[in-house]
Fold:
Amino acid sequence: MTGDEGWYDEAAGPLVRPYTITSGRTPSENARLDVSTQVMTLRSEQEPAGLGPEHLTIVQLCRRPVSVAEIAVYAKLPLGVVRVLCGDLIERGLVITRSPSYQPAQAPDLETLQAVLDGLLKY
Amino acid sequence: MDLVPIPVKIIVAGGFGAGKTTLVGSVSEIPPLTTEEVLTVASTGVDDLTGVERKYTTTVALDFGRITISPRHVLYLFGTPGQERFWFMWDDLARGAIGTIVLVDTRRLETSFAAIDFFERRKIPFVVAVNCFEGAPRYTADEVREALVVPDHVPIVMCDARDRDSSKIALIRLVKHAMSAVSATAARVPSAG
Structure:
C-alpha cells in the first residue's frame, strides 16, 4: 500500500462516493439512456463554462460517437453516474445521442435486423 | 444525425462459467470491457440474519464487446451479470435488444434453466448455444432440447465460445431467428385489425 491510499483499502470503496459527482442526483426515468446509447459532442467555438471535470472528460471522449457503457469504462465512472452527467450535457445542448430503436415493437425493425445480418455475414 | 450510428444490442446470458465473457471476447472487435453499475438493493435471503430488510449498495460488473456493423450500425454484446439477485438489470439490458444467446454448459445444464425461463416469459427472441467444452459430454441438439424443455421454434446451435467464427455463427443464427419473429408478428397484424 502506498502513501496516497492512506488507510483505505479496496473494501472501503472509492474515496469519492459515486453520486457525489452528480450532487446526489440519480438518473431520472425520462433521461434514461441505454448502455448502448451513442453520445457525440457537438462542435462548439469555445470551451463550455460551468462544467465539472467529469463533464469535460465526457465532452472530450465523445468527439466521435461513444456508447454510454464505453464512456463509463474510459472515464472510470459507474454507469448511473454517466447517465446523469450525459443528461446534463444533453440539457445544455452540448451532445447529441442516439438510442436503440424500439418503437413500436420491443425489438429492432426488419430493416435494422437485415443490416445487422448483412454486416455479420461480412464480418 | 447520420453521423451517429444506430446502436443495436445482443445479450449473452447463461449460468456462471458457461463462457459468456469468452464468447463476447472471441467475436468482439475490441478486447471485452467491464463497467460497473452501482445499485441499491434490499438485502434478503442468506445474508439477512435479522429478518429485517436492509438496504445496501453494491456494484455489479457488466462485460461487453463491440462490432462495427457499418457506418450506420454498431452492435454491442452484453454479458448478463451472473448472480440471480441482479436479474432486474436484465430487463434494462434486454430493452430494445435483438435478442439473447443463452450459453449452455452441458455439465451444468440446470444453471441455464433460469435464463431460458426469463427470456421465454418476456417473449424475447433467443437461441440456445451449447458451448462444447473439451471433456464435457457431447449431446445432440435434440437431447439438449429435451433436457432443457426448449420449444421447437427455438434454435439450438453447437458452438465453441473461444472460436470467433463459431461465435459469429451463433450471432447470425440469433439475428435470423429474431427476423422470423418480427415477420411472424407483422403477419399477424392485419388479421388482428
Summary: Confidence is low (pLDDT under 50) at residues 1-7 of chain A. The radius of gyration of chain A is 18 Å.
